[in-house]
Design brief:
Helices cover 59% and strands 2% of the residues. The chain has twelve helices and two strands, in the order H-H-H-H-H-H-H-H-H-E-H-H-E-H. It has a two-stranded parallel sheet.
């Protein structure tokens, strides 16, 4: 037995529990906590990241977010580090190989949608200058900040996610239902849905105001 290691592990466990997190992240896996603490709700306008979450959120449909996070690195490898220009050129043969890749969700509709969405993503980017300019336009470029006290208050979708979903579908995107798009808005920081008791709520607001 290594006493030093045991003490370090106890200290790490204590550090994890020192702060209050949103209910879905409290007591979750380390990967989920890291995602919650570092990414979820943080305003993001990076084109590749916006494309990445578009694909990952669509892939999650019917599955847990933990499953997708566990496969995230596999997705990055399989989808050219989420370069939409490269994904848009995927051939049927390339798609067939992806459907044999255990590092991603091997669902034909979802894989085909990723390629379709890459092409639509590039079209939107060309029309609006960037995809970020397009999608952030739905919140006038400023994150929506909620003040939820309980996870039961957090909606699964809103009228705004309905609008975004409808417009994306009109532009040819797949797997972009309203619930999926609200999760997307949360992920890329278009909306801050951290509970008021969560340590990240105030931090993200403060960073936005600087």
């Amino acid at each position: 037995m290594n006493p030093g290691k045991h003490v370090a592990e106890k200290r790490q466990a204590a550090d994890v529990n020192e702060v209050t997190r949103c209910g879905w992240a409290a007591g979750s896996s380390e990967r989920e906590r890291t995602y919650h603490d570092a990414e979820w709700g943080v305003p993001n306008r990076n084109e590749r990241t916006l494309f990445e979450f578009l694909i990952l959120e669509g892939a999650q449909a019917g599955l847990s977010w933990r499953t997708i996070l566990d496969k995230r690195e596999g997705y990055r490898r399989a989808f050219c580090d989420f370069d939409p220009a490269k994904v848009a050129r995927f051939t049927d043969k390339r798609i067939a190989r992806l459907l044999e890749n255990p590092d991603i969700v091997r669902n034909r509709l979802k894989v085909n949608a990723a390629v379709t969405n890459a092409r639509s993503f590039l079209e939107v980017s060309a029309q609006f200058g960037t995809f970020a300019h397009y999608v952030w336009g739905f919140v006038d470029g400023v994150p929506l900040v909620n003040r939820w006290e309980s996870s039961t208050e957090v909606p699964a979708s809103t009228s705004l996610s309905d609008q975004l979903s409808k417009d994306l579908k009109r532009r040819g995107f797949k797997f972009v239902g309203s619930t999926i798009m609200y999760s997307y808005m949360q992920a890329v920081g278009m909306v801050n849905d951290h509970l008021v008791s969560c340590f990240r709520c105030a931090q993200i607001d403060a960073a936005r105001e600087r």
